[in-house]
Design goal:
Radius of gyration: 22 Å
Strand order of the largest sheet: 1-2
Order of helices and strands: HHHHHHEEHHHHHHHHHHH
Shape: globular
């Protein structure tokens, strides 16, 4: 009996310790942000555009906002730059490796939109042994892109996913943000602007479209491309707002999400005759249906349906 109990205890101890080891390994295996400097090594033109944005400038001044201290205090923290809640949207972090402590280094930057890069940046930068970017064979490029996406990279042509990152922060709807903190932030004066719209924002000061053959030109979108982007942005807003509705019962929070839903519904209603996927998304506002819509609008000119909804001002 004593031997049996010793054996059982040993097994239980092994399971407990093994479980701890697995959990620790899984935690370390999570992708982390490497910081904007890594991206700037190659994307110099894009980095210069970023340096002229409110995202870049916010690192030095957002914590000086007249309501910042009250908002930080409302979520139980003392300093904005040390607040995990504020870091969710307002700051970019940097780590050298998985075991390194994250360090805030900038305002929202590359990985805020394109995903934590630890698992994909080396893949993204590999054009082949001894091969320069401009000489990369087409087959190698296609394989590199596929592998980078599989490792977590959100590429610029994955518009719904990029838009979803924007909508999650600007709609105060990030999964990591707890309901009680969202409510406390609003009560302390944190803004929530349901009128946030992707075309105005992304094609204003943030625009960085440097594509071959002339990578020195920051290309503007055509009217057809703007209409596509508008619809995809509204699709992402709809999914974000619908999911956020269940996050909090705060009256102002719900009112803002309802306004986002109404605006998105109007845009999707306008194009569902040309794009059946819009009707499917309205019936079931899911990520899968949002991605399907984004794929369906590629190459379509939707200006006749939503041209009048496009913003005239770009920020």
């Amino acid at each position: 009996m004593k031997k049996f109990l010793v054996t059982i205890f040993s097994v239980m101890s092994f399971v407990a310790v093994s479980g701890f080891i697995v959990s620790a390994t899984e935690a370390q295996a999570a992708p982390f942000k490497v910081g904007p400097k890594k991206c700037q090594e190659c994307h110099t033109a894009e980095a210069e555009v970023w340096k002229g944005t409110a995202h870049f400038k916010s690192y030095k001044d957002i914590h000086k906002h007249d309501k910042a201290d009250a908002i930080v205090e409302a979520v139980g923290d003392k300093r904005m730059k040390r607040s995990e809640t504020c870091t969710i949207c307002h700051y970019s972090e940097e780590q050298k490796d998985a075991g390194d402590k994250p360090k805030q280094v900038a305002g929202p930057s590359c990985e805020s939109c394109h995903g934590a890069a630890s698992d994909w940046i080396n893949i993204h930068n590999d054009y082949g042994k001894g091969v320069k970017r401009e000489d990369e064979p087409a087959a190698h490029k296609a394989e590199r892109i596929a592998k980078a996406e599989a490792a977590g990279m959100i590429r610029p042509d994955k518009l719904f996913d990029v838009a979803s990152n924007c909508m999650a922060c600007h709609g105060l709807a990030r999964d990591e943000l707890e309901a009680k903190d969202a409510a406390a932030m609003l009560d302390a004066g944190h803004p929530l602007k349901p009128e946030f719209e992707l075309v105005s924002y992304s094609q204003g000061t943030v625009r960085h479209r440097f594509y071959p053959p002339d990578v020195t030109v920051n290309k503007e979108m055509t009217p057809a491309e703007l209409s596509q982007l508008y619809v995809v942005g509204q699709a992402a807003a709809l999914v974000s707002a619908k999911q956020a509705m269940s996050k909090s019962d705060h009256a102002n929070y719900k009112a803002a999400q309802e306004k986002r839903i109404a605006t998105a519904t109007a845009a999707l209603d306008a194009v569902k005759g040309q794009v059946p996927e819009a009707a499917a998304l309205l019936a079931d506002p899911s990520v899968a249906n949002g991605r399907a819509l984004a794929a369906a609008v590629k190459g379509k000119d939707l200006t006749g349906a939503v041209g009048g909804m496009l913003p005239k001002d770009r920020k």
